[in-house]
C-alpha cells in the first residue's frame, strides 16, 4: 500500500492532516502508528534521516518481551523466572524465604565467574521467585513481581 507523499508546496501541517485522513491509511493503521508513518514520510521527503517504523516496531517488541512476566505452574509453587539459570554458578544457588510465612521464596545465586570458596564477590541476585500455590493465584504472583521489580 503506497504511503502518501508530500506535495511540492504543501506545509507539514497540511500534509500530516491529509496523510492521517487518507482512507487507506485509516483502514490499515491505528492512529499512533499512522502518525509515526506520516511524520516519517514528511521527514524522508525533506531529506532527513528516518528510522524505518517497521524496524522500530521490531525493536520495541523485542524490548517488551524482555520484561514480560511469565508464571510457570508447579506442584507446590508458581515460578516466575527473573534470569536464566545459566547466568549463575550452579554451586551458588540457594532458596530463601522472602516473607515470614514462607509463602514467597526466591532462588538466589552468584553470577558465573564470581563465586569462589563458597563466597560471591559481587553479591547474590534473584534467579526466580516461588509463590505457594495455596496462598497465591497465578495472577497474584504476577502482580507481586510487577510491584517489586
Strands in their spatial order, largest beta sheet: 1-2-7-4-3
Question: How far is the first residue's CA from the last residue's CA?
Answer: 42 Å
Q: Output the helix-strand order.
A: HHHHEEEEEEEH
Helix content: 25-40%
Rg to the nearest angstrom? 25 Å
What sort of overall outline do the alpha carbons produce when their principal axes are compared? elongated
| Helix-strand makeup class | alpha+beta
Number of domains: 2
- The number of strands is 7
Low-confidence sequence ranges: none
Describe it.
- Helices cover 37% and strands 20% of the residues.
- It is of the alpha+beta class and 149 residues long.
- It folds into two domains: 12-66, no CATH class; 71-147, no CATH class.
- A hairpin with a 3-residue loop joins strand 1 and strand 2 (77-81).
List the helices and strands and how they pair.
Blueprint: H1 12-21, H2 23-28, H3 31-45, H4 53-66, E1 71-73, E2 77-81, E3 94-97, E4 104-109, E5 115-116, E6 119-120, E7 125-132, H5 138-147
Antiparallel strand pairs: 1-2, 2-7, 3-4, 4-7, 5-6
Helix pairs in contact: 1-3
Summarize it.
This protein is an alpha+beta fold.
Task: Supply database-style keywords.
149 residues; alpha+beta; 2 domains; 20% strand
Amino acid at each position: 500500500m503506497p504511503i502518501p507523499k508530500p506535495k511540492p508546496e504543501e506545509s507539514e501541517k497540511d500534509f500530516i492532516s491529509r496523510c492521517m485522513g487518507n482512507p487507506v491509511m485509516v483502514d490499515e493503521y491505528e492512529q499512533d502508528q499512522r502518525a509515526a508513518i506520516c511524520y516519517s514520510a514528511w521527514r524522508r521527503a525533506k531529506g532527513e534521516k528516518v528510522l524505518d517504523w517497521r524496524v522500530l516496531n521490531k525493536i520495541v517488541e523485542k524490548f517488551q518481551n524482555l520484561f514480560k512476566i511469565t508464571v510457570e505452574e508447579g506442584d507446590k509453587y508458581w515460578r516466575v523466572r527473573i534470569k536464566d539459570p545459566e547466568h549463575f554458578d550452579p554451586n551458588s544457588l540457594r532458596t530463601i524465604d522472602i516473607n515470614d510465612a514462607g509463602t514467597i521464596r526466591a532462588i538466589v545465586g552468584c553470577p558465573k565467574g564470581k563465586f569462589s570458596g563458597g563466597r560471591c564477590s559481587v553479591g547474590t541476585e534473584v534467579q526466580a521467585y516461588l509463590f505457594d500455590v495455596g496462598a497465591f493465584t497465578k495472577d497474584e504472583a504476577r502482580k507481586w513481581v510487577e510491584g517489586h521489580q
